[in-house]
Design brief:
Elements lengths: L1 H7 L4 H28 L5 H14 L5 H10 L1 H6 L5 H29 L8 H17 L5 H11 L1
Helix pairs in contact: 1-6, 2-3, 2-6, 3-6, 3-7, 4-8, 6-7
Protein name: ABC-2 type transport system permease protein
GO molecular function, one term: ABC-type transporter activity
Membrane topology: Multi-pass membrane protein
Length: 157
């Protein structure tokens, strides 16, 4: 299920491109507009402060849950339930695809952060931990709540 969901991502660029452009845009705009103000009130490194904000912008709301809704409404999910696959694997596959997608969305934001001078004091391990936390944050947001909302409707048919 995860590979199916991952293969569907390039087919729907309208779901991914805004999730990448918006945080990059606001990261640059916030740094340009507010850095001098933040430094004036004592914020030591405003760029490093804004990097997690941009990551949260990038990963919040990105989900393959709409694909699950489409599968349920079209009846395809009912056919998947008849396969010898575990039911948890059907939902976990979409959540794994969400995790991979949001971690991939974090990478360009991190690259821009490095480009403007943000440094991680913990080195590579800190960057990887930052990616993992961003991925977990993004994959838990809408995807973890959507299946529970859709399942009762699918059973009513």
């Amino acid at each position: 299920m995860a590979t199916r969901a991952l293969r569907a991502i390039p087919r729907d660029p309208a779901a991914v491109i805004p999730a990448l452009i918006v945080p990059l845009f606001f990261f640059v705009v916030n740094i340009g507009a507010l850095e001098s103000v933040a430094e004036g009130i004592g914020v030591a490194d405003f760029r490093a402060f804004q990097l997690p904000v941009a990551i949260v912008f990038a990963v919040t709301g990105v989900s393959r849950a709409s694909d699950l809704v489409t599968d349920i409404s079209s009846g395809y999910f009912d056919r998947l339930l008849l396969t010898p696959m575990r039911r948890s694997a059907l939902l976990l596959g979409l959540m794994v695809a969400d995790l991979v997608l949001v971690m991939a969305l974090c990478v360009p934001v991190l690259i821009l952060g490095f480009f403007v001078g943000v440094e991680f004091a913990t080195g590579l391990s800190g960057v990887l931990a930052f990616l993992l936390v961003g991925g977990l944050w993004g994959s838990r947001s809408p995807a973890s709540r959507m299946p529970s909302r859709c399942a009762p409707e699918a059973r009513r048919r």
